[in-house]
Specification:
The protein is an alpha+beta fold. It has ten helices and seven strands. The strands form two sheets. A four-stranded antiparallel beta sheet has the order 5-6-4-7, covered by helices on one side. A three-stranded antiparallel beta sheet has the order 1-3-2. Strand 5 and strand 6 form a beta hairpin. The relative contact order is 0.12. The mean pLDDT is 91.
């Protein structure tokens, strides 16, 4: 079951981000309470709100707490770790599509028909998200289209979610309307374009904020969080179509700017972690 993060500034979303970035750096999924309190102060969360938020996460089965000597440690449960992996998988799927975009497209299309599938049912919402994350878009009810072959991904999803499907791949496509209509009506390009333009503005804001930071300034943490959160929302909504279908794409510049800024902020965050052990 996916954790629904409705508020990007909630304790739950920030704590999961901290565990994600801390584990990327250290390989550990356990953080001491005192350290968590210091980290959360960078997000303007005081000790009381942090303790209350951590308690709620323990009750929800996201975290567990253990005492080691005089220190209390919080660590991710399998459920908490599963949700971090869902987040990371969404980003990995985006970059898989992004790499395909910049390879020569073979002009072949992929079609998947899901059998007896009801996307409106609550338990199927995560699967719908995953179908979109691998680049598929719904043509008609339960008929999904993609300009790349995603047979392996569909097999994995069908095994995990126990649904039947039929697929057609390697075919040409014909439609009696314009390519612009295909991009607009099926792949919903315009909202994604606007989202990338907004993201580019946010990236510029973060660059300006980070320019004046000192070496051990913990404010790099909320800046990295802000960057990652906004990029994720845009990236997972992008079908990342081949260059042959859409050559001038704001996403290309946004990804380049994101990658450079993330590397810069991540290096600052790791130095902050080193100095706050």
């Amino acid at each position: 079951m996916k954790i629904v993060l409705r508020k990007k500034d909630s304790v739950t979303s920030i704590v999961l981000f901290l565990f994600n970035i801390y584990s990327e750096y250290t390989g550990q999924y356990s953080i001491g309470l005192n350290k968590l309190i210091r980290f959360m102060q960078q997000f303007e969360k005081n000790e009381t709100s942090t303790r209350m938020g951590l308690s709620r996460m323990v009750k929800a089965g996201i975290l567990t707490n253990v005492r080691q000597g005089n220190e209390v440690y919080y660590q991710l449960t399998d459920y908490g770790l599963q949700n971090i992996r869902i987040w990371n998988e969404g980003i990995n799927r985006f970059f898989a599509r992004f790499n395909k975009r910049h390879n020569v497209w073979d002009q072949k299309w992929y079609l998947a028909a899901l059998m007896d599938f009801h996307k409106s049912e609550k338990e199927n919402q995560l699967l719908v998200d995953e179908l979109m994350e691998i680049g598929l878009r719904e043509l008609e009810n339960n008929i999904w289209l993609c300009p790349y072959r995603v047979s392996g991904e569909i097999v994995d999803l069908s095994v995990k979610n126990e649904f039947k499907y039929m697929e057609l791949w390697g075919g040409n496509i014909f439609y009696n309307f314009t390519a612009d209509q295909l991009l607009r009506d099926i792949f919903k390009i315009e909202p994604v374009r606007k989202s990338y333009l907004k993201l580019l503005g946010i990236i510029e804001e973060i660059k300006k904020e980070s320019a004046g930071l000192k070496n051990n300034d913990g404010y790099c943490l909320p800046l990295l969080f802000k960057l990652g959160w906004n990029f994720y929302d845009t990236a997972v909504a992008d079908p990342v179509l081949p260059e042959e279908l859409i050559s001038d794409w704001e996403g290309d510049r946004a990804v380049k700017e994101f990658a450079e800024l993330r590397k810069h902020l991540y290096n600052r965050v790791t130095r902050y972690f080193e100095n706050n052990n």
